[in-house]
Design a protein that fits this description.
Elements: E1 2-4, H1 7-14, E2 24-27, E3 39-41, E4 43-50, E5 68-73, E6 91-96, H2 105-108, E7 123-124, H3 127-145, H4 152-177, H5 179-198, H6 201-205, H7 210-216, H8 221-232, H9 236-254, H10 259-265, H11 271-282, H12 286-289, H13 292-296
Parallel strand pairs: 1-3
Antiparallel strand pairs: 2-6, 4-5, 4-6, 5-7
Helix pairs in contact: 3-4, 4-5, 5-8, 7-8
Length: about 300
């Protein structure tokens, strides 16, 4: 698979006009000749595609806007040219990962999990949201096409970061609008977690990560995590550990087996780690829970 290291390489590969900035570009005109081979890049990509009037509406889940969609692509993602090509009302924003170096976004970019969502987990925006995103893009475009100076990068980054913060808000709105999907994802996760604990897989396979549960629902790990955090206030890791401690309390109450064996049964390789987690979550060590006073606490 071809890897494109620079913004210029990406533009050449896709038949786009050369970028005005070697580290950042905004593209709204696309070549009809798309390369077929898949590729990856060192750039963050934002794809905004506004549905044209007269186009048939896509078949979307209940509660989903059909005005168009945004997709966010992380550096290193395996993609095709078709995945980032948009219609006449759309655009693509390209930012090389080094464009953020020395800036706040160099660290905070990792908190915008939607860059690692699957295509099916795109943001389907409302009309007012599309207007706001387009407005921010226009402000970045002014800096992009004007003669750059010492202020240009900071101004572009301020609008870029504002766009990401708005998108995070819009995803929360989408989770709320698609409550049937959100509820379904949450219920299936609970069911899969209960099955995993009851089946003895903890002892054989260890404590599962978000990727395990995401694969069962054909979701990206970050999307699953964000949906569950929206729904429950807890991450996948939090929910798994809460369930493990609940099971530990059950075993401590009803079983004579040792704390070491309980820790092993629950997927902990070291008893010390289990004891520390139990103490952190319950406020006292597991051996105390076995006393009448501990069980009443």
């Amino acid at each position: 698979m071809k890897h494109l290291k620079t913004v210029s390489e990406l533009h050449r590969h896709l038949g786009w006009a050369p970028p005005e900035n070697p580290m950042f570009s905004i593209v709204s005109q696309f070549s009809d000749q798309l390369p077929k081979e898949r590729f990856s890049t060192d750039c963050y990509l934002i794809r905004f595609d506004l549905r044209n009037e007269g186009m048939p509406s896509a078949v979307l889940p209940e509660g989903t806007h059909d005005n168009g969609a945004m997709r966010f692509i992380h550096p290193g993602t395996d993609i095709s040219a078709r995945e980032i090509t948009v219609g006449s009302n759309g655009f693509v924003i390209v930012a090389h990962k080094d464009f953020f170096r020395g800036q706040r976004l160099a660290q905070s970019i990792n908190t915008y999990h939607f860059f690692q969502y699957f295509p099916s987990e795109s943001l389907f925006f409302a009309p007012c949201e599309a207007q706001l995103i387009t407005s921010l893009k226009t402000k970045m475009e002014r800096e992009y096409y004007n003669n750059t100076d010492e202020y240009s990068r900071d101004i572009i980054l301020s609008h870029y970061e504002a766009m990401l913060m708005y998108v995070k808000r819009f995803y929360k709105r989408q989770f709320r609008d698609q409550m049937a999907i959100t509820d379904s994802v949450s219920e299936r996760f609970k069911s899969h977690l209960e099955t995993y604990i009851k089946s003895g897989l903890l002892k054989r396979e260890g404590i599962p990560a978000a990727a395990h549960f995401a694969k069962q629902q054909q979701l990206s790990p970050y999307y699953l995590n964000d949906v569950l955090q929206f729904k429950t206030g807890n991450t996948v890791e939090d929910l798994v550990l809460i369930a493990l401690i609940a099971k530990a309390k059950e075993l401590l109450s009803d079983s004579p087996i040792s704390i070491e064996e309980i820790a092993y049964t629950l997927g902990f390789k070291e008893t010390k780690k289990f004891a520390l987690l139990f103490t952190k979550m319950e406020g006292y060590p597991p051996e105390m829970f076995r006393t009448p006073k501990g069980r009443r606490a």
